[in-house]
Design a protein that fits this description.
Order of helices and strands: EHEHEHEHEHEEHEEE
Shape: globular
Number of domains: 2
Number of helices: 6
Radius of gyration: 17 Å
CATH architecture of the largest domain: 3-Layer(aba) Sandwich
């Protein structure tokens, strides 16, 4: 834990970093229990890097195309995180599949936000998947990361109704609003010790805000 008493957090991005911005804004509150100490991208052209720099957050680029395989990229990523004394990793639109070895090294210390109500609609194009399945509720999930894609223990979810006239874009627009609300709330819980991983289950010691479904 940092000298400030706040958990040292890195955010990994590959693009515009919309959820990253929500986390940065939340962390500006002196009472927030996490300190964002690094924003790292695997893409040099990720728009979120400039937004993080504008907020005064150190940024790093580890271009995955410069490495011969996933293992060597992950080793460089791990070294950068440890050099910054990172205690918790937040994936925010980080479009890389991490090796089991890397995930094991950060087990219980890495969370991700996914744009569906897991375990439904893993992978990509989740909004189209939801519409094709005809579900009446859709949303987003924050979960701990495990080697299997989008399969880790769920910390919290936020749900919205699916409207008759929704298309993937309109659904995405409403889900991202919930993502930006949910991720900072969950990071605060994890960094503050109010949500913890016990085996394959998340134990939470706080009542959920209205509209947010915690894994209880």
């Amino acid at each position: 834990m940092a000298a400030t008493g706040k958990m040292r957090v890195a955010i990994l991005i590959s693009g515009r970093g919309s959820n990253m911005v929500a986390l940065l804004e939340a962390a500006r509150d002196p009472a927030y229990p996490a300190e964002i100490v690094l924003v790292l991208s695997n893409r040099p052209d990720a728009a979120g890097l400039a937004r993080a720099a504008e907020a005064g957050i150190p940024t790093r680029i580890i271009d995955h195309t410069a490495f011969p395989d996933r293992a060597s990229f992950d080793a460089a990523l791990d070294a950068e995180l440890r050099a910054a004394s990172v205690e918790l990793v937040c994936l925010a639109g980080f479009m890389r599949i991490l090796t089991p070895e890397f995930v094991a090294g950060w087990a219980g210390r890495m969370i991700n936000i996914h744009p569906s109500l897991l375990p439904l609609f893993k992978g990509t194009h989740t909004h189209r998947q939801a519409l094709e399945a005809g579900v009446r509720l859709h949303g987003c999930t924050v979960h701990f990361v495990v080697p299997e894609l989008d399969a880790g223990p769920i910390v919290a979810q936020a749900a919205i109704p699916v409207r008759q006239d929704d298309d993937p874009d309109s659904l995405a627009d409403r889900v991202i609003v919930q993502e930006r609300r949910l991720y900072p709330a969950v990071l605060a819980l994890v960094a503050g010790g109010r949500a913890r991983l016990e085996g394959e289950r998340v134990v939470i010691t706080e009542q959920a805000p209205e509209g947010v479904l915690f894994s209880l």
